[in-house]
């Protein structure tokens, strides 16, 4: 079979892939960027965001509405205003957990002039203050509006 021949042959049947093209992996989202998905009622951070904060279970969310910025930092579960953003699945892996909160997401959507029925993905970046690792999400830099 030639290297550019895309037909698939077997004993039972034959399927011709002529006209099909391989889709480049560059066209798909990569999970190497911390991301948050926000919709009215909930938000969830991706697995890479959790890894960037050393697989912590609890976070504090700090908002600066004037700068349209959200800051996330790891914290102890007993700390006032902590929120659980990850959990351990049945295989022992740390995975994202949906954070429910209509009052918070409602205010956020209102302040950002977003649509209440929309879903928004925002890319983040790691920032540091002394030795503390944090994630910053510029809320005006939407990765996707779904």
How does this model look, in words?
With 146 residues, the chain is mainly β. The protein has one domain. The chain has two helices and twelve strands, in the order ββββαββββββαββ. The chain has helices at 47-52, 102-112; strands at 8-9, 14-15, 35-39, 42-45, 58-64, 69-75, 83-84, 86-88, 94-96, 99-100, 119-129, 132-145. The chain has an eight-stranded antiparallel sheet. A hairpin with a 2-residue loop joins strand 11 and strand 12. The longest helix is centred in the C-terminal third of the chain and has 11 residues, at 102-112. The termini are far apart. The model has no long low-confidence stretch (mean pLDDT 88).
Q: What is the average of the pLDDT values?
A: 88
End-to-end separation in angstroms reads 42 Å
Structural class: mainly beta
Into which percent range does the helicity of residues fall?
10-25%
Q: In angstroms, what is the radius of gyration?
A: 21 Å
Count of helix runs: 2
Task: Let me know the number of strands.
Answer: 12
Strand content: 35-45%
Shape: globular
Strand order of the largest sheet: 7-5-6-12-11-3-4-10
| Helix and strand pattern | EEEEHEEEEEEHEE
Q: Which ranges are low-confidence, i.e. pLDDT below 50, for 5 or more consecutive residues?
A: none
Number of domains: 1
Biggest pleated sheet: 8 strands, antiparallel
